Each structure stands twice: as C-alpha cells, then as structure tokens.
Amino acid sequence: MATTSSTARRDTETGRTPPARGARAKRPGGLVRVVTAPVRLVVALFRGDRPYVFAVLGALVVAGLLLMGPAERYLETRARVERLQMTADVLDREVGALEQRVDDLHDPTYIELLAREQQGFVREGEIPYRIVPPAAEQPGVESPEPVPQRAPRWYERAWDAMQRWLGDDGQDGQAPGG
Q1: Distance (Å, rounded) from C-alpha 111 to C-alpha 105?
Q2: Rounded to an integer, what distance in angstroms lies between the CA atom of residue 19 and that of residue 25?
Q3: pTM
Q4: Residues contacting 88, CB < 8 A, separation 6+
Q5: Within 10 Å of residue 159's Cβ, how many Cβ atoms?
C-alpha cells in the first residue's frame, strides 16, 4: 500500500513521487520533458465546455466547405437560366415579327405596295414619274488620278542605250519585255 503524507503522494507500483506541476518530469527512458506555455494554452482551451464549442465551430466550418461547391453550381445554373430566358424572350419577339411579316405577305394590298416601291411597277393607265435630284446634290464622279509613269526597267534602259549607240531609231524592233 502506498503511504500518504501531507506533502507528497507515492505511486504504489513504482514507489516514486510524481513531479510537481510545471516541473520537469522524467520519462521512463530517462528523457526530461518541459511543460511549456503552448501546452498549457492548449490544455486551458479544452477545459470545461470549450471542447463542445470548438466541435460545433469545426462542424460549421466543415459544413460550409462542403456546401460551397453545390452553392456555386446553383448560382451558375441560375445565371445560365436567366441568360437563356432572355435569349428565349428575344427569339419570341423575332418569331412574332416574322409571323406578322408572313401575314402581311398574304395581303394583296401589301404585295402591291412592295411591288410599287421596290420594283417600280405601275398599273395600266398610270404614268410613272421618277424624281431625279438636282445636279448639286448628286455625287460627282471624279476623274481618276493620273497614273504616274513608271521608270524604265534596267533592260529597257540597256536596250535603248544599245539602239542609240547603233544609231537605230527602234522602228523595226521592239524592246524586250515591252
């Protein structure tokens, strides 16, 4: 049995006195361990109800991380649905305009109007008039810029020099390449 004294308690199996708190404790291998401030801080953080608070906070962080992917996909999908809805609205308006055009093209009055405006058709007995804008409003046709004379090529210059040297005026032959 272990004897208890008022100052120290002895271990019943080893017969040793445990070290005081914060003091150096010998390990069985003979190593000395120093209880430091970070270890005390960790021990102090997990006393009482604090472990439950940390567990709840950790669970909330994990849940938030797990929900970030689906939430991002949901927001992307919602934005895509909105873009597609806007495209569908534009296409519906275009379909309505094209249906109106089809209805107009089935109307003989509208066809006659198009024939008169676009093709210049007139009814029998009508006199067509064409209004020509005054000359001042007509765009003027400008003459093209004069084409500058190109310099003769080297072989043309050589041919001309040879003809001058021989005294030939070039009446019976042509310059090469020209």
Answers
A1: 6
A2: 6
A3: 0.37
A4: none
A5: 19
Measured CA to CA, the distance from residue 145 to residue 149 in angstroms comes to 12
* 17/2 Cα distance (integer angstroms): 11
Q: Could you tell me how many residues make up the chain?
A: 178
Cα–Cα distance for residue pair 9/15, rounded to 1 Å: 9
**How many CB atoms are closer than 10 A to CB 175?**
16
Query: pLDDT tens track of the chain, all 178 residues?
Result: 444 444 455 556 666 666 555 555 555 544 445 557 777 777 777 777 777 778 888 899 999 888 888 889 999 999 999 999 999 999 999 999 999 999 999 999 999 999 888 888 888 888 888 787 776 655 666 767 777 788 888 889 899 999 998 886 555 555 555 4
47 DSSP assignment: S
